[in-house]
Amino acid sequence: MDLYVDGYLAQMFCPEGVESYLPRLLAMETPPMRLNVTQEWPQAFFITSPMQNTRPCLSINGKPAWLLDYAIRLVGTVVPQRIWSPRCFSGANLLLRMPIFFAHNDRVNLGLPLIKAVAGDCEALLDASAPAPVGDCSTTYIRINVRIL
């Protein structure tokens, strides 16, 4: 599996977008791209490089690991996005958070049908009762750009 082709981020931002997104996300000029996979999370890409402001998902070979992406599955829709930056962008003060995935308890399937979300039926989601991993803040803004083709 290739993160720049097979991942949801590549499908959402395009491979070139991922190449610019990952250094900003990981706050490294050339992020270490040694990706890890586990039997418990067969469709996921993990990194074991230390991440600030985000707790690790699990441990791989005794090292903390962070979920970076999932391998794309031909189920559902991936909405193409642009990486948004504020108008008065200063790379020094922009802190990106790790992607948030609505993973099922089986750690393979992703997403929640709109009907279930509206009804509050999220029992199939992994850690559904845990707070979203948005850092040490009480609110956050999530911006999704949608294009109509």
Question: Could you explain the architecture of this structure?
Answer:
- This protein has 149 residues and is α+β, with helices and mostly antiparallel strands.
- It has a domain at 3-100.
- It contains three helices and three strands.
- It has helices at residues 3-6, 8-26, 114-119; strands at 44-47, 58-60, 63-70.
- The protein has a three-stranded antiparallel β-sheet, with no helix packed on it.
- A hairpin with a 2-residue loop joins strand 2 and strand 3 (63-70).
- The longest helix has 19 residues, at 8-26.
**Quantity of strands, as a count:** 3
Count of individual helical segments: 3
Strand content: 5-15%
Structural class: alpha+beta
- Described by the principal axes of the CA atoms, the overall outline is globular
Q: Low-confidence stretches at least 5 residues in length (pLDDT < 50)?
A: none
H/E series: HHEEEH
Strand order of the largest sheet: 1-3-2
Mean pLDDT: 77
